[in-house]
Amino acid sequence: MPQEDDPTNSIHTKVCKGAESRWLTGVVSAGYRALIRHHIDRDPRTLDAIAKAMEISPRQFGRILRGDVPLRIEVLAALSDLLGIDQSRAWIAVGQLGDWQRYNDVNLAVIVQLVGPMLEKLETRADFAIEPLTQSAAEQVSEWVAELIISNAEQIRRRRETIEDLPELRRPVRRRRDIEGAA
Fold it and tell me: Does pTM top 0.90 for this prediction?
């Protein structure tokens, strides 16, 4: 937790309290709206039920989905929670890659899965400030990580292919006399 005199604390406060930070606009807003609509299409609830769960009117919810009103960060967070949207994956897909459909990319899910453990390892193992990687170093590290992930996936696939088909387990056939005898 940043201290009062920590410069990141004042930056965080300015960003979070700034009016421009409360609204998503442009391509990012459109990407999030598309991702939200995709999740709504897969959700068994009606739009009215989702609006009610959001504690807003169905009319207001429709305006949000159509883009008639700006998408507020608070609404995005509430919808993400309600619809089961992973906010980390969504931010990378929409905010960084600019393609909401990448949200469902298994490769992106693997990368997001690595972020937390990687940060923890960097924080606990380095007793000094980590410098940003140069572009060539980032390329090399990403090459190593990609090769490790691919190699692991290939090993898993080979193990699955070598498992012999297990015999099919069948429920024993009940004969009529077994059923009658039990009664």
Answer: no
